[in-house]
Amino acid sequence: MRLDLVPRARRSPWLDALSPVLAFAAAVLVGGLAVSALGVSPGAAFLTYFVAPLSEVWSLQEVVLKAAPLALIATGLTFCYRAGLWNIGAEGQYVVGGLAGGWVAIATHGAEGFTLWILPAMLAAGTLAGLAYAMIPALLKVRLGVSEILTSLMLVYVAQLGLDYMVRGPLRDPQGYNFPQSVSFDAAARLPYLAEGESLHAGVLVVALALALAGLVLSRTLFGFEVRLVGASPRAARFAGFSKGQLTLAVFAISGGAAGLAGILEVAGRIGQLQPEISPGYGFTAIIVAFLGRLSPPGILIAALVIALTTIGGEGAQIDLKLPLDLTRAFQGLLLGLVLGADVLARYHVRIVPGGAAGATP
């Protein structure tokens, strides 16, 4: 006996819409069982994870600030994934973007006179650096047929080690008592806050604009149609005259540029200097966000807020309930697996085939 997946003749829009919700509910149930096994009340854990972060203004702002880079990176990755390409190296592109934009801030540290150009130059440098770094696996894929999964992933560690070297060496603050960090950025190199005394900065608005633009490109332009067609039916795309090689370069450029922009927005916003670690794993977590959001900018925004909520809640649970932070990461991974599984069941139904019919055609 075996189990076969048979495509559904008609897909239910209700099932498609509800599958992420059901997957989230299943993840919460499994997470409650895990928490209970650790000797903590599931009810108390639920309140700490999902309710407490929404009860204070500062924690709501933290949720938005954590969701912003996740949403931006995931939206860039959406272009690759919809085209059937796999950029796994957004973490490295994020780091390179933050490093390049941060170098501009350090190089202009202490500048006087007209300084309004510094922040735009930082954002441009970060975006272009992330784009250029993403071109390495894209060109290797197009020219030599090398797997973009392996090259993009391995380049993450090159970027991380490069950042570590720079902040411990050439870019280290000479007055920083030998701490591995750069000088603190000038005010001209920092993103302005949206309100006095609050933590939300202008980077949130940049992310919102980027998501709106990406949604427009994917749904209303010929390029967006090409991305969807190549991913859904490469053979039909060839008949239509679309070039897979050119599209590969284009979508990697978009995803790398988005990750690089996210990196410099974080450095010029919350961090304010270069450090050996400028990312808690945003590039990898954004992969979860992209698929949890069904590769759609509106869905990605919701998914990013949910993941950010669980992250802030997980930090609170670590302090208040003494639960390990790894439990939050396990929950996020479980959520991705359940969402993908629910998506499969929304597209296919399971058929049991007797053992004697193993060689039969479905």
Please write out the topology.
Layout lengths: L1 E6 L5 H25 L4 H10 L5 H26 L7 H18 L10 H27 L3 H21 L34 H18 L1 H11 L1 H6 L4 H28 L10 H11 L4 H24 L4 H23 E6 L9
Antiparallel strand pairs: 1-2
Please tell me about this protein's structure.
It is found in: Cell membrane. Pfam families: BPD_transp_2 (PF02653). This protein is mainly alpha-helical. It has 13 helices and 2 strands, in the order βαααααααααααααβ. The two termini are 13 Å apart.
In short:
This is Simple sugar transport system permease protein. Helix content is 69%, strand content 3%.
Biggest sheet strand line-up: 1-2
What is the total domain count?
Answer: 2
Largest sheet: 2 strands, antiparallel
Helix count equals 13
Structural class: mainly alpha
Strand runs, count: 2
**Mean pLDDT over all positions:** 90
Q: How does the overall form come out from the CA principal axes?
A: globular
Q: What is the ordering of alpha helices and beta strands?
A: EHHHHHHHHHHHHHE
- Give the quaternary arrangement of the chains: single chain
End-to-end span in angstroms?
13 Å
- Proportion in β-strands: under 5%
**Cα radius of gyration in angstroms:** 22 Å
- The helicity comes to 55-70%
- Uncertain regions spanning at least 5 consecutive residues: 357-362
